[in-house]
UniProtKB/TrEMBL annotation, chains A, B:
<keyword id="KW-0808">Transferase</keyword>
<dbReference type="Pfam" id="PF22691">
    <property type="entry name" value="Thiolase_C_1"/>
</dbReference>
<dbReference type="InterPro" id="IPR002155">
    <property type="entry name" value="Thiolase"/>
</dbReference>
<feature type="domain" description="Thiolase C-terminal">
    <location>
        <begin position="238"/>
        <end position="380"/>
    </location>
</feature>
<dbReference type="GO" id="GO:0016747">
    <property type="term" value="F:acyltransferase activity, transferring groups other than amino-acyl groups"/>
</dbReference>
<dbReference type="InterPro" id="IPR055140">
    <property type="entry name" value="Thiolase_C_2"/>
</dbReference>
<dbReference type="InterPro" id="IPR016039">
    <property type="entry name" value="Thiolase-like"/>
</dbReference>
<dbReference type="Pfam" id="PF00108">
    <property type="entry name" value="Thiolase_N"/>
</dbReference>
<protein>
    <submittedName>
        <fullName>Acetyl-CoA acetyltransferase</fullName>
    </submittedName>
</protein>
<dbReference type="InterPro" id="IPR020616">
    <property type="entry name" value="Thiolase_N"/>
</dbReference>
<keyword id="KW-0414">Isoprene biosynthesis</keyword>
<dbReference type="GO" id="GO:0008299">
    <property type="term" value="P:isoprenoid biosynthetic process"/>
</dbReference>
<feature type="domain" description="Thiolase N-terminal">
    <location>
        <begin position="4"/>
        <end position="221"/>
    </location>
</feature>
């Protein structure tokens, strides 16, 4: 298996981009990533996207490659719900690791603010089980609310403790020029925000976002394209039942745990080695169960730990210096690529927001309510 | 790069499957493929699908893996319009070739007959360019009709010559138990069928189809799972502009040519070595330009060749002994997987329809109007 390096990254600001098309948004991220490698032409492109069907467009790999001047290269789109960016990174990794391609561009792109919000929320619910869940009218927030209530009750976790996650994320995100929500908030902001699906309130949830991020992958032969190549030391994906009612456990993300264990084993690293991580905090409860499933906290303890000040910049591990999904935003199919781009910049020491000294980084991108999870280990 | 073998295949009959869910349809193909390898559990699943959004379901890899009893393995969906099955095969290949996974299941699944036909036709048009083509109301058949008229005029090809393709396909498909349209037709059937988009008539076009196909891929270590492993000797994908108006040429499928050239080079084979091929005859015109782009016929000569009896069972190469998209049917995201499964069975000598002696086989799956093309070379 050939070693795989990230030698270029590019991002657009996350936010509302109704004035540009999806292909233009992707092209901005691609252009930024290509700039970092002297515009060395890639041989393949992997596009991560979930909901371009909302704007009646599929065949995104051909569309985006052509618009970026890359006609004739290999191209495909991959999807794993909100974890589409993560599986795109995995697919790009496989292309280079196999030896079939030497220079691969992975781009995640999503436009959620193009359509009326009810249509978008309906689209996001396609990540759940249409036959066994959506038929009951449950929303994606509703499914996460079930877990939040169960978790709070089982582990005696206070609502205020969970809410402090959002406060910490906004503290980080306010310094990230790519973030969507760049304002500090207080505990009261969260507790007094409108109920979305009890007990989840607006500020427990990430925003709807547009955005695109790209990474350029290559092998040992081409890593000189960058002075600061970052090694993908491990990568693993695992799937779980989309339907919550058939899960082994409501408060453990089985696929998150498997994916993290496998990626760490592949990288010959322990969770204790991780200096910085970007995890998938779609809701405050998702942050808690993700941190526990990865192994950054014991069962039921994550919210207690962050309430005591853990995971802040300077701590090991620092979690979500970007501001996470909560503040940076969650352009669904792009999120997993943003995470890798951000952690690469942390390891290179050039992330323009909260920067922490780091040699080992981890990203975890979650699709559905933990049904498609990809973990990536990055090493300077 | 590790060698990759196909050691199991499974298919459902192509046709109308409104009585079963998408996950059940996929499970039937998976179960058939797993039967061939003694139910050896795969480590990863790749799902090829284009239009599950029509039934409000994404996250198919998790959904299908879980339903097939494969919770916890790696899973992702890939899409390249009507070429989704082809890119799924490529992705499965990369998984095994990289060494990251040893046993990989690739399943293509599509249900096009679940929704009213106008909705489905609209969905299929997502393969075209929403901003630059669909805005004018052109359908997918309409785009192919432009090419057909141009081709007939440029190369002085008669309408009757093109129509004979469909007659040949139905002759083959009538013997294929998995085919959707198992009736012989005459030249008059094609010429007198209703106009879809002039000059394309109903019998120039493939039907709308439901279906699922699966292949099981593995490496040298595990090829003993089958007594008759078939080597993937070459595989390559190329993309072109989805928007016809910006093509280099209307009557050559640039991506088809590139993809075939690259796959043949990788396999160290010439197009003359190919004994049997399954190509993407979505329309009679698609058959002609595909045969020419791959190199099975000179420019403008394909329809003349098949009018003279070439490409029939027994000829080298025999093209589409399955009946092709025209008669076997075209369950979009599954088609590229059907093609590989069929050619594998030709090479093993156990295809239950028209069977030709063959040592080298080729498949080519086309997304959009030639905008996402994957070619696979298979060897006994």
């Amino acid at each position: 298996m050939r070693k795989v390096y990230v030698v270029g990254v590019g991002m657009t600001k996350v936010g509302k981009h109704t004035e540009v098309s999806m292909r233009d948004l992707a092209a901005e991220a691609i252009s930024n990533a290509l700039d970092e490698v002297g515009n060395e032409k890639p041989e393949a492109i992997v596009v991560g996207n979930m909901l371009s069907s909302l704007v009646e467009q599929e065949n995104l790999a051909a569309l985006i490659a052509d618009h970026a001047g890359l006609r004739g290269i290999c191209g495909l789109k991959v999807e794993g719900a909100c974890g589409s960016g993560g599986v795109a990174v995995l697919t790009g990794y496989l292309m280079v690791a196999s030896g079939l391609y030497s220079k691969v561009l992975v781009v995640g792109v999503e436009k959620l603010l193009e359509r009326p919000t009810p249509d978008t929320l309906r689209g996001l619910a396609y990540a759940a089980d249409a036959d066994y869940e959506l038929i009951y009218g449950v929303s994606f927030a509703g499914l996460n609310a079930l877990i939040m209530r169960y978790y709070m009750s089982k582990y005696n976790v206070k609502r205020e403790e969970l809410a402090l996650w959002s406060v910490m994320m906004h503290q980080n995100g306010v310094k990230n020029p790519y973030a969507q929500l760049r304002n500090e908030i207080t505990l009261e902001t969260v507790l007094n925000s409108p109920v979305v699906a009890d007990p989840i309130r607006l500020y427990d949830a990430c925003p709807l976002s547009d955005g695109a991020a790209a990474i350029y992958l290559t092998n040992e032969d081409w890593k000189k394209l960058s002075d600061t190549p970052v090694l993908i030391a491990g990568v693993s994906n695992a799937v779980d039942s989309p339907d919550l009612s058939s899960r082994f456990s409501l408060d453990e993300l089985f696929a998150s745990r498997l994916s993290a264990e496998n990626a760490l084993r592949m990288a010959k690293l322990s969770v204790k080695d991780v200096d910085v991580a970007e995890i998938h905090d779609a809701y405050t409860i998702t942050a808690a169960v993700s941190l526990e499933s990865i192994g950054f906290a014991e069962k039921g303890k994550a919210a207690k730990l962050w309430s005591e000040g853990r995971f802040k910049p300077g701590d090991k591990p620092t979690i979500n210096p970007s501001g996470g999904l909560k503040s940076r935003g969650h352009p669904v199919g792009a999120t997993g690529v943003y995470q890798v781009a951000e952690v690469v910049m942390q390891l290179r020491g050039d992330f323009p927001g909260v920067l922490v000294p780091a040699e080992v980084g981890l990203t975890q991108n979650v699709g559905g309510v933990g049904s498609n999870v990809t973990t990536v280990l990055l090493k300077r």
